Structures are given as C-alpha cells and as structure tokens.
Amino acid sequence: MTFTVAIDGPAAAGKGTLSKAVARHFGFAHLDTGLLYRAVGAKVIAGADPVSAAMALDPVDLEDDSLRTPQVAQAASKIAVDPKVRAALEDFQRSFARRSGGAVLDGRDIGTVICPDADVKLFVTASPERRAERRFKELQERGLETSLDQVLADVKARDARDGGRVTAPMVAADDAVLIDTSDLTAAEAIAVAVKAVSAARKPDAP
Ligand code: CDP
C-alpha cells in the first residue's frame, strides 16, 4: 500500500510536530525534506559546490544535529532557490513518498511539485510572530544564543526567499487543507491534521 501525506508551510509553523504525530498515528514513515536542503547548506558553508553537494548527498548526512542552527537554515534557503539543487534532490523524495506502508513528507513544495498527486495535503501556517516565539524557545532550549528579534528577522527573510523564488516557491496547493496553528495548542493542531488524513483514507466514511 502506498499513501502519501504532503505537509508544507513556512519556517516553524509546526510542520515537524504535525508530521511526526501523523506518521506515528498512522504508522507511516516520515521525511523532513528541510534536512536535505539543510545538509546541502551545511556543506556549502564548509566550502562545497551546492549542486555537487546535492548530487552526492547521503542519507547519513541528515542525521547531523548541527543542521538545526539558524546559520544552516539561512544557507539552506539560499541554495534552495537553485533549480539544479532542487532537481538533484527530487528522486530521493519521490521514492520515499512511494514507499510501501505510507509516507509523510514535510517541506515547502511537497504538495505542489514533489507529490502533486499526494493522497492528502496540508498547508500549515502561523503568524510570523508566533513562529518566531516558538523557534526562539526551541533554540534557547538547545542552548543556542540568539534573540527573539533576530529569530523573527530570520523567519521573515526565509519566508520572503522561499515564497518569492521562481522554482518551486512555497505556496499552498489548491487542494491543500489549511491549518493555522497561531492559536492552537500542539494537541489541537495534531487533532485537526489526523482528522484530515483520516478523511482522505476513508473517502466514503460518514
Ligand atoms: O524547520 P524549518 O521550517 O525552519 O525549515 P526547514 O523545513 O528545515 O527548511 C530549511 C530551508 O530549506 C527552508 O527555508 C527552504 O528554503 C528549504 N526547503 C525547501 O526549499 N524545500 C523543501 N521541501 C524543504 C525545505
């Protein structure tokens, strides 16, 4: 059985939390596609050529904890505008989506470009301020030094770059279910996501 859940949205909107929860609930595999771009961004910071780094990417590269820094996030969004980098990462994402047993992929262009035929698509948003607060808290908990203002500026810069690029801009698919998590707890947002996926699995259910 293949069943693909596409979850897109801007930085720190709650995609990671929702993707993991949906994957756990339905027993699907999960791929955080942001890690692919972060891993390429990290290699570029270390001096590599972006396209060569994307073509040579190894799944082991995704396991590095240092990919979660704001510096790597910015580098990721810069290399992510390059169509050649994006093309080099497509096959891996598409084969993951088709794996048997179901898959959840989260990113920016999953429902529009990578899996336009996904069984269910969610587009998760929240106000830039709420997203910055959440990301700031996460970074603080991980001991990374930054300020709320800096995180908000980073979030806005990435929103502009990710939404404004020519190739695969971040945009909700026409058939995506929109979830605004600004005023939802994680549990409430998870309940909405699980309900949307359940409805797509049983289209004839009352
Ligand atoms: O976790 P967060 O939402 O902050 O970011 P991420 O999902 O790890 O993505 C990091 C960057 O990779 C984004 O800002 C995008 O520029 C890029 N990205 C992309 O272009 N396409 C994807 N499918 C996933 C990430």
Helix/strand layout:
Elements: E1 4-8, H1 15-26, E2 29-32, H2 34-45, H3 50-55, H4 70-79, H5 83-97, E3 103-107, H6 110-114, E4 120-125, H7 128-141, H8 148-164, E5 177-180, H9 186-201
Parallel strand pairs: 1-3, 1-4, 2-3, 4-5
Helix pairs in contact: 1-9, 2-4, 4-8, 7-8
The structure holds cytidine-5'-diphosphate (CDP).
Cytidine-5'-diphosphate binds at residues 11-12, 33-34, 37-38, 73, 76-77, 80, 107-109, 158, 162.
What does this structure look like?
The chain has 206 residues and is of the alpha/beta class. Helices cover 52% and strands 12% of the residues. The protein is built from 9 helices and 5 strands, in the order E-H-E-H-H-H-H-E-H-E-H-H-E-H. Strands 2-3-1-4-5 form a 5-stranded parallel β-sheet, sandwiched between helices. The longest helix has 17 residues, at 148-164. It starts with a strand and ends in a 5-residue tail after the last helix. The structure holds cytidine-5'-diphosphate (CDP). Residues 11-12, 33-34, 37-38, 73, 76-77, 80, 107-109, 158, 162 line the site of cytidine-5'-diphosphate.
Outline:
This protein is α/β, with parallel strands linked by helices. It is 52% helix and 12% strand.
Key phrases:
206 residues; alpha/beta; 5-stranded parallel β-sheet; 9 helices; 5 strands; 12% strand; binds cytidine-5'-diphosphate
